[in-house]
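Board notes (copied after class):
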Amino acid sequence: MLISLEKILFYLLIFCLPFQTRKIFYQWGNDFNEWISVYLYLTDILLILIFLLWFWRLQGQYLSKGTIPVIIKNPIFWLGLFIIISLISLVQADNFQLGFYHWFKLLEMAGLFFYLKYNFKQLFNFKKLAYVFIASGLFQSIIAFGQYIQQKSFGLKLLAESPLGSEITGVAKIIVNETKMIRPYGTFPHPNILAVFLLISIFFLYFLWLSKKHSFIKNCLMLFIFGFLIFTLWLTFSRIIIFTFLLVSLIYFIILFKQNRKKIFILFLLFIIFNSLFFILAWPEISSRFSVSLTEQSVGLRVFYTQAAFSIIKDCPFLGIGIGNFVWEIKHMINLLASWLHQPVHNIYLLIASETGLAGLFVFLFFIFSLLNQFIRHKSLNSKQYYLLLIFFCFLFIGLFDHFFWTLQQGQLMLWLILGIIGANHLY
């Protein structure tokens, strides 16, 4: 009974991953800033309930036998060391309370990693996970499509949908023929995070398509969902994520072509048709968005954040300025016109180095390397393993250009979810 409840809560966590439903407990300063506030998310509550059920199972499985499992693996060692260094970095923090909150969030996400590493094979089914991800991706696509069509938010307050409008300051937009058009968010805090979620959902659909034969009706349904997910992904106009999606999809097709030539060929044709169709229909929007200018505000801000990161690393190379304190630091370095302009550097590696020092970045990269090394040593890679491997590299690459995998709830959940399942690779 409790195991069934644990499974339901986990799949519910996956479906609710995009929702911003949360309680803001505290914020520093008069103007709200996303990165210097304290929250409790709906997904936090679901995680806590899952952890409690897990600990209850551990008590029944191990404590009753008088033994406590001690498993020493390289990835675990490096992750544990990184958590310790992140905690020590707080001695450098100007805002200790904010830093401790972010350290506790790191601890929570590490808990998700450990949970999946030691429970994924026992409790969960990869295909069921794929269905839940695709269902949630489809739900987000419907919301995002509606937002783009009406050029404003739906007002889904229960899901904490972001307020959207072409005249609202801080909302991501494209400009086509001097007309401002919003980029859809779904229920995410930014279109880029929606784009990554859709990328994962599409790759899960690839996996299901190749896993077995399907009925005619199911094939038609998957065909519709595939096209709709790709269409919505393009509507986010997330340049790096769309480029990553196109490149990694082609790599995926090439790698698996020998295993199932017919299905891969059909999938490749559909991939070309759907992407080409959107490219033709939305050429004015695409040409406007994908012609990058050095005078763009987003480019100028990214340069500023990067320069600030290098300055911080130069001044505090060993322990950084304390986990979670980057935005707090630049807020006091320079007073920008609007609070939302104070953001983390758009590179998770520079962000980690800024906040936990080069020691923290070094240890985190060793954790990633040891996890990847353990994964690749698997005797034979099937479509499931290739899927995870490519998504893993997608995240590492996208992390060079954005920060949400490290700073925002939805991005953190996606990152540690994939890392946890990869960590469980040697167990199945």
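Comment from the instructor: The chain has one domain: 2-427. The beta strands are 22-27, 37-41, 173-176, 179-182.
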